[in-house]
Amino acid sequence: MVYAAVSNSDLALPGLRRGKVRDVYDLPADPASGDPRLLIVATDRISAFDVVMPSPIAGKGAILTELSTFWLRFIERLGLVRTHLLSTNADELPASAFRPGGTTREDLRGRIMIARKAAVIPIECVARGYLEGSGWKDYQATGMVCGVRLPAGLRQCDRLPEPIFTPATKEELGKHDQNISFETACERVGRPLIEDLRRRTLAIYKAASEHAAARGILIADTKFEFGIPASGGDPILIDEALTPDSSRFWPAQDYEPGRAQRSFDKQYLREWLEELVREGRWNKQSPGPQLPPQVVAATLKKYVEARDRLLA
Predict the structure, then answer these.
(1) Residues in the chain with pLDDT < 50?
(2) CB neighbour list of residue 144: distance below 8 Å, 6 or more residues apart
(3) Of the candidates 179, 186, 191, 290, which lies 20 to 30 Å from 54 by C-alpha distance?
């Protein structure tokens, strides 16, 4: 399928917030319940090293939306937690959301979520089943990951004896989230809440990992965000879920601990950018470099393959 690129949305709706990938607007309240709602638009922007690249990956936002929608419904079906997802139907948006010369309803098809509004809990909830990334760095330095003591002698990308919950701070756009201990997370938002989020995070990770493994993908780690709905009650899962942007997906047939793994994410883009850094052509600061067509195509191919495998 050929996608038209959507780098930014332009809608006649209030409250616009732009993240690295998603644009979020306020919507009129749900006519049935009266609860406040959000419109989340997944654009084709892509970031690396916390810098949004000037070149979009046409279709990436639609793929992320398709994957997140699948996983959110999967999670709800298993009764693991309620989610923010109400609808993905662009026809439900009011005509007043569109302005002359702005983003059209057709532009939004396949890349939106109409969502319950929630107060974000300021903790990234990370589940790790394998030792890689910042967890691998922490382990090399301390033998622990976010205060969780692990067995000695583990190699890069080794499977952990059991999945672990490793919270992180939720930083402002452009800043790196910081790994923190479970106790620090408790101090920030309360022990009962963090214990509940740990239980839910690990349950989702277990179920998703089993689904993915049956389709030849290892979920090395993933992160979730939760919020308290405006109507109150238990936390709900918000934002994206189990996409290549929020997870490490590895092809199972190539898995070999002791080295970095091939992955279904933007690793190809990161490697290309690292080469620019080594050559002195970029310094990991904004603005990012224009991406050549072959890098755009190779990056999109990874997202497509991950979607096709997971949704099979």
Answers:
(1) none
(2) 138, 150
(3) 179
